[in-house]
Write a structure and sequence with these properties.
The protein has four helices and no strands. The longest helix has 54 residues, at 102-155. Helices cover 80% and strands 0% of the residues. The chain has helices spanning 2-15, 25-38, 49-92, 102-155. By secondary structure, the chain is an all-alpha fold. Among the domains are: 50-89; 125-157.
């Protein structure tokens, strides 16, 4: 952009006071359109040209498809191998037994009841624990207000 402006400026400087004239755009476009309309397209056309072009396009398309097929096959094989590995690991992993005998189930009930009791106590104590710092601050604030009131009462006649 800058170089174009510089070239135009230099051209005007070298031309001196002469006015550079260019053909009006309407005239150049009109003459171009007239020349294009008057010219005739070549009559000699090869009838097999369309088929030759289509053969070239199809051969390029098959070459491109041949390049993508091995890439897709490698990814499919790698994905299948990874899936088989995950399934083998899952199949051979030790699983906990879900068979509880009658004596084990009877022993577990008191433990579950104790856990429920502890959770109940925890939920009842949680508000006191959470608000304890605020309660301390409120007590300190009340003490300061009482001290200020006592001071004001003592200074009044």
């Amino acid at each position: 952009m800058f170089l174009t402006k510089l070239k135009s400026s230099l051209r005007l400087d070298h031309a001196g006071n002469e006015v550079l004239t260019q053909p009006a755009p309407e005239n150049s476009f009109a003459s171009l359109e007239r020349r294009l309309r008057e010219s005739q397209p070549p009559e000699a056309r090869d009838p097999d040209l369309h088929f030759a072009i289509m053969r070239a396009v199809r051969s390029t398309d098959t070459e491109r498809r041949d390049l993508t097929r091995p890439w897709l096959g490698r990814w499919a094989m790698a994905t299948g191998a990874a899936l088989c590995l995950v399934l083998c690991i899952w199949w051979f992993m030790p699983r906990p037994s879900n068979t509880l005998g009658g004596s084990t189930q009877n022993e577990a009930q008191p433990l579950m009841a104790a856990a429920l009791d502890q959770s109940l106590e925890l939920t009842q104590q949680a508000p006191d624990v959470a608000l304890a710092p605020l309660v301390v601050e409120l007590e300190l604030l009340n003490r300061d207000v009482r001290s200020a009131v006592d001071l004001v009462v003592a200074t009044m006649p």
